[in-house]
Design goal:
Order of helices and strands: HHHHHHHHHHH
Number of helices: 11
Largest sheet: none
Shape: globular
Mean pLDDT: 84
Subcellular location: Cell membrane
Radius of gyration: 23 Å
Protein name: Carbohydrate ABC transporter permease
Structural class: mainly alpha
Membrane topology: Multi-pass membrane protein
Keywords: Cell membrane, Membrane, Transmembrane, Transmembrane helix, Transport
Main location: membrane
Number of strands: 0
Distance between the termini: 31 Å
C-alpha cells in the first residue's frame, strides 16, 4: 500500500510539472503582450501599466478580419478534401488490401519524412509554373498533398483494426464494396474521422511557411501569416507580436476544447483495439 501511494503521489507531481512546462510559454506570451508596444521586456516581468489595448492594435495592424475570412476559405477547401481522400485510401489499404498495397504503404511512410522546409524551393517553382502564385490555391493544393501521408496512415490504422466479421456478414447479405464502406465502416469511423479533421484544421490554421513564401498578398494568407505584419525593416515589435500570436491561437484552442471528447475517444479506441 505504501509503494502504491508513493507511485500515485509521484505520478501526480510529474503531471503537475508537465502541466507547468506546457503552460509556461503561454504565460510568457500573455505577460509580454501586455507591455508597451516597441519595448523589449525581459523575462516574466508584469508591466506596471498593462496595455490591454495591444490586442486590439494587433488585430487592426495585421488586418486579421480579412485573414480570418481567408483562413476559413482555406480550411473549407483543405480539410474536407484531405479527410475524404485519406478515408478512401485508408479503407483500401487497411481493409481491402489490394495487390501492391504494401508498396503504396511504404511510399506514404516515406512521405512522412519530408519536411515542409526541405521541399519549399521546388514547390515554389512548381506552383509558379502552374500560375498559382499569390492565390489561395498555392496554399490549398500543397497542403492537401502534404497532409496525405499522415492522414492516410491515420485512417489505415483505424480500418485495419475493424472486425472482419462485420464485412463478411455484409458481403453475405449482398452488400457491395461501396455499401460496405459507406453504411458500415463510415458510421463506425466517426471518432477517427473527427479527430483527423481536428488535427488537419489546427495544422492548416497554423500554417505559416507556405503562406509567407507562396502568397504575397497578406489578405490571401492564413491567420498565421499575420505574424509578418509585426516585423519591420529595423526590428520586431515584440509585445504586438505576442498579442497577435495569442489572437491566432485562440480559435484553435476553442475548436480543440469543443471537440476534445472526439479526439480522446479516437485515441482510446485505438489503444483498446491495439
Amino acid at each position: 500500500m505504501i509503494v502504491r501511494a508513493r507511485e500515485k503521489w509521484l505520478g501526480r507531481v510529474l503531471l503537475i510539472v508537465l502541466m507547468l512546462v506546457t503552460i509556461m510559454p503561454f504565460i510568457s506570451l500573455f505577460v509580454t503582450a501586455l507591455h508597451a508596444p516597441g519595448t523589449y521586456p525581459s523575462g516574466l516581468e508584469w508591466p506596471p501599466e498593462p496595455r490591454w489595448d495591444n490586442f486590439v492594435t494587433a488585430f487592426q495592424s495585421a488586418n486579421m478580419a480579412a485573414l480570418l475570412g481567408s483562413s476559413f476559405l482555406i480550411e473549407i477547401a483543405v480539410v474536407p478534401a484531405a479527410v475524404l481522400f485519406a478515408t478512401l485510401a485508408g479503407f483500401a489499404l487497411g481493409h481491402l488490401r489490394p495487390a501492391g498495397g504494401r508498396i503504396v504503404f511504404v511510399a506514404f511512410i516515406l512521405g512522412l519524412t519530408l519536411p515542409f522546409e526541405g521541399i519549399i524551393t521546388p514547390l515554389y517553382f512548381q506552383i509558379r509554373e502552374m500560375g498559382l502564385l499569390n492565390t489561395r490555391w498555392a496554399i490549398i493544393l500543397p497542403l492537401i498533398g502534404l497532409f496525405m501521408p499522415f492522414a492516410v496512415m491515420w485512417m489505415r490504422a483505424h480500418f485495419i483494426t475493424m472486425p472482419a466479421d462485420l464485412s463478411e456478414a455484409a458481403r453475405m447479405d449482398g452488400a457491395t464494396t461501396w455499401q460496405l464502406f459507406w453504411r458500415i465502416h463510415i458510421p463506425l469511423s466517426v471518432p477517427a474521422l473527427s479527430s483527423l479533421a481536428i488535427l488537419l484544421f489546427l495544422w492548416t490554421w497554423n500554417q505559416f511557411l507556405l503562406a509567407i513564401v507562396l502568397v504575397n498578398d497578406p489578405e490571401k494568407r492564413t491567420m498565421a501569416g499575420a505574424l509578418g505584419a509585426f516585423q519591420g525593416q529595423y526590428g520586431t515589435d515584440i509585445p504586438l507580436l505576442c498579442a497577435g500570436s495569442l489572437l491566432i491561437l485562440t480559435p484553435t484552442l476553442i475548436i480543440f476544447l469543443i471537440f476534445q471528447r472526439h479526439f480522446v475517444s479516437a485515441l482510446m479506441q485505438g489503444s483498446l483495439k491495439g
